[in-house]
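The authors assume throughout that readers already know how a fold can be written as discrete tokens. A single example would do more here than another paragraph of explanation. An entry of this sort, consisting of the sequence and the corresponding backbone structure tokens, reads as follows:
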Amino acid sequence: MTNPRGKLQTAFRRYRAPLLNALLFNGWAAALSYRCGLHGRLGVTRHRVTLPAARALPRPLRIAFASDFHAGPTTDPALFDALFDCLAQERPDVLLLGGDFISGKAENLAALSAGLARCEPPLGKFGVYGNHDLWADDELMGRMLADAGVRMLVNRHVTLPAPFDAVSICGLDDPWAGAPDAGAAFAGAADVRVLLMHAPDGLLLLGGERFDLAFAGHTHGGQVAFRDGKPLILPQGPLGRSHYHGRYDTAGDGPLIVSRGIGCSTIPLRINADPELVICTIE
């Protein structure tokens, strides 16, 4: 079976969702983990980015970035309630979503969709798909996300309304399970370009396209890490191994901010890799 972007679905992936549900007792293991504090503690990480004078904005732009929710048997939905409460307090101008909305089947997105619908940042909500999403029914997920007011950016950009009409959000398809096309994502974009992608490895596929700020997830900060934050097992991908959490300078472009994400993948456990909401102000 081939999905809409031509990815072969293996037997392992077809049977992965029911197997994961069975091994984790249909979410009971995640619920116990959350109640024992083993999902980590959700926090807010703040960044500031200063643009060159030639691309200065009329006022600061506050961007919220959240990624890697993994709604399903590995993540207790109470964590999403905490996230949406935090977003309501932060009141960002725009909300960016870095993919991996689900673990397992696409219908697990229902645990997120009501909360996403309640979020109403004045400049909109935009997302990209992650590898877990593309292993599932991403067409169904696209409809569910659209119903929640989220616009998905698959190799395309959207320019924000005034007074931020000099800013484009450029969404790149997942480098692992998708078909990234940087030329299409950046074609006709405005002067200030915010790159939204699931995995840091997307930087290797830009083909010289310029950006002022980039966001990625995928790594979970390792999800289980040593006390100094270094992952016990390094994430997948050449840049995932070196850019697993935090802010990274890029030659000739703006900074890349890699989030630890929100939920848990594979096992319902986070150690020394707390979930985080990123708030970045472009000045």
Observations:
- Helices lie at 11-23, 28-35, 78-90, 110-118, 131-134, 138-147, 182-186, 238-242.
- The longest strand covers residues 43-49.
